[in-house]
Amino acid sequence: MRTLIRFLTRNRGFITFMLCMIMFRSAVADWNVVPTGSMQPTIRIGDRILVDKVAYDIRLPLTHVSLLHLADPQRGEIVVLDSHAANERLVKRVIGIPGDEVAMRGNVIFINGHAASYAASSYTGIHDDLRDPAHYQTERDGTLHHAIRLSDQHPSPISSFGPVKVPAGQYLLLGDDRDNSMDSRYFGFFARDEIVGRARRVIVSLDPQQHCLPRGDRFGKALD
Questions:
Q1: Looking at the chain, which terminus has fewer C-beta neighbours within 10 angstroms, N or C?
Q2: pTM listed for this prediction
Q3: In what helix (H) or strand (E) does residue 23 lie, and over which residues does it extend?
Q4: Can you say whether residue 162 is alpha, beta or left, with left for phi > 0 and alpha for psi between -120 and 50 degrees?
Q5: Contact 64/143 with Cβ under 8 angstroms?
Q6: Which residues are 111's β-sheet partners?
């Protein structure tokens, strides 16, 4: 016991710093490594993203208990959640909020009966395109717009669904890589209390196909 007390006394500064860092990452802001391509081209494999954990709630550190409700996720935002259904942390885009009626027809999204519009776009540097050629489109719903990736050879078996109405306290989330994303098409709606924060920007990006060399053009890139 005396040895433990001496250790704690001698290292109290470091221990205090580590505890503060753990609390900060748990309740205020964190960074996540993105190991999959389900949000390409917006988020690329190897991106380290900044997660704003006070975007929606102030939570009790190390828990999902909300101490103060600040806002709710809005359509088009990229959120980070601890999914019980998937049994892992996910990064997805909000497509449907509570009360929305959402449908998909041949990868075309309909929200409350209105179809999103699409325009061809192009992206370079996506390594998955070498083994799985794809094309890119800008998906636009009103003032919201973002890029999506669609495989030319391996389309998703669920390119159509609904219409479904998003229940209270639930959200319909999809990945931007529509043919390579496990999302609400497979897991159903995601509960509001599973959402832990909003992905704001890329902190740093390391290319796993190039010996983890940094991608200079992605430092500090805003995510939208």
A1: N
A2: 0.92
A3: helix 12-27
A4: left
A5: no
A6: 102, 114
The continuous run of DSSP H or E covering 187 comes out as helix 184-187
CA atoms of 182 and 159, how far apart (whole Å): 13
Domain ranges of the chain: 2-117+154-218
**Rounded CA separation 103/96 (Å):** 10
Contact call for residues 29 and 49 (beta carbons, < 8 A) = no
So what's the architecture of 2-117+154-218 in CATH? Ribbon (2.10)
Cα distance between the two ends of the chain: 53
- Coarse DSSP helix, strand, coil percentages of the chain, rounded to the nearest 5 percent: 20, 40, 40
Distance of CA 174 to the CA centre of its chain: 9
177 φ/ψ sector (left φ>0, alpha ψ -120 to 50, else beta): beta
